[in-house]
Amino acid sequence: MAVRRVLVTGGNRGIGLAIVQELLKRYEDTYVLLGSRSLSAAEQAIAAMPAEHRARCTPLQLDVASEASIRDAAALVKEKFAPLHGLVNNAGVMPSDFDLKSGLDINVRGTVLMCKYFEPMLLERIVNMSSGSAPNFVQKCAPEKQAMLVRPESWAQVESAIQEMENIYALDHSKVPAAFEKAGFGSFAGISVYGFSKACVSAFTYTYAKEVPRLITNACSPGFIETDMTQHFVSPGQSAKEAGLKTPAEGAEVPIMLLMEPIKTTGKYYGSDGKRSPWDKYRSPGAPEYTGE
Ligand SMILES: NC(=O)c1ccc[n+]([C@@H]2O[C@H](COP(=O)([O-])OP(=O)(O)OC[C@H]3O[C@@H](n4cnc5c(N)ncnc54)[C@H](OP(=O)(O)O)[C@@H]3O)[C@@H](O)[C@H]2O)c1
């Protein structure tokens, strides 16, 4: 049986770990590289798996915020495991609204650099973990900012929006909210940095799929999933389910579909129900599928 090797970043916990576990459980022909910035966290996650899964899973030290770490991991994978069926850019953070650097370094540049270094080894698929926060963010932007983030002509166009955002964040913190809103990035509240970073991930997916048409590259939202990232959305005394959160295994469904199932669409954004969603408007799970570009 031909083996399909897959790399999942941030595979040591949360949705990433669920993707690893479900891949090993559902597809006997998979071999999974469990990317984790902490090798011991990866080893612990693998040690807790059934023996049959452990035999098809290996830890890979990988800090997506570090180009050197990505380069080293790519060299090791090229030597020992290439080619890979696919890559899941799952690693991510939800930073505070004043921590643009983490949002960009991990969520955006991490995804971009992973694609750059691993593309030569990939046979078929890339799945980029975006979020419903992306269309929610874009929806609130002024038309000229929407034009930079939705169906951009090139990644350079998105990078100019990133540069503009970095200029805003170079100001004194007290001046950031007003400058953010004046620049047309919408209201500065809640999860603005996270929403912006995920809008950039979606926009990157759109441009990258055009640049590298031999691969099937899509972005998705996993849904609202119970992980460390979403703990603060659960009120005291409330269960995760009561707060509307689904399980990590449920969050793994769409990324796995985009990674493993026979799809042909590339450069699209999928909602947590496995149907396409628009880039600039939130579509609730179960609502009619988006059919535009
Ligand atoms: N949970 C949700 O409802 C939800 C909704 C929409 C989108 N998402 C997206 O889904 C993905 C997974 O989120 P989650 O909910 O599973 O979050 P999580 O439980 O907080 O897990 C985040 C994962 O990313 C890893 N990570 C963070 N920074 C990293 C870095 N620099 N290098 C490598 N790995 C790094 C973490 O590793 P460490 O253990 O080393 O920190 C961890 O494995 C993220 O991209 C998130 O934005 C989640």
From TrEMBL:
It holds the Pfam family adh_short. Coiled coil: none annotated. InterPro entries: KR_dom, NAD(P)-bd_dom_sf, SDR_fam. Residues 268-293 are annotated as: Disordered. The keyword Metal-binding does not apply. The keyword Transferase does not apply. It comes from the Eukaryota. Residues 273-283 have a biased composition (Basic and acidic residues). One of its GO terms (molecular function) is oxidoreductase activity. Residues 4-161 form the Ketoreductase domain. Keywords: NADP, Oxidoreductase. Belongs to the short-chain dehydrogenases/reductases (SDR) family. This is Carbonyl reductase NADPH 1. It comes from Porphyridium purpureum. The lineage of its organism: Eukaryota, Rhodophyta, Bangiophyceae, Porphyridiales, Porphyridiaceae.
